Amino acid sequence: MNENFSATELLQRAHALSKKLEDAEIWNEIRFFRKDGITVLARVPGEYWEIDLLEDGTTDVEVLRSTGDLEDETSIERLISEFSEKPKH
Q1: What is this structure's pTM?
Q2: Residue 58 · residue 36 · CB < 8 Å
Q3: At CA 46, angle to CA 41 and CA 47, rounded to 5?
Q4: 33 phi and psi angles, rounded to 5 deg
Q5: What is the dihedral of CA 45, 42, 23, 7, to 10 degrees?
């Protein structure tokens, strides 16, 4: 789809999607991660969705699914250390 959307149109699309998710009782929030679009995040049990509405009219959907594996609280420090910003030299 090569139909460029304005910022207003992208916001309207994101709001309409957010409303549709809310009506289905699916948690969601609108975020601005990309310069070329708007992201709608959604969570359902065991899944996390990243829905990117792009100014060129395309929609990218990434679904992240849980494996169901649980860890105890000792993993918290490891996870923070693994994914925190490393100092730049």
Answers
A1: 0.79
A2: no
A3: 30
A4: -105, -25
A5: 180
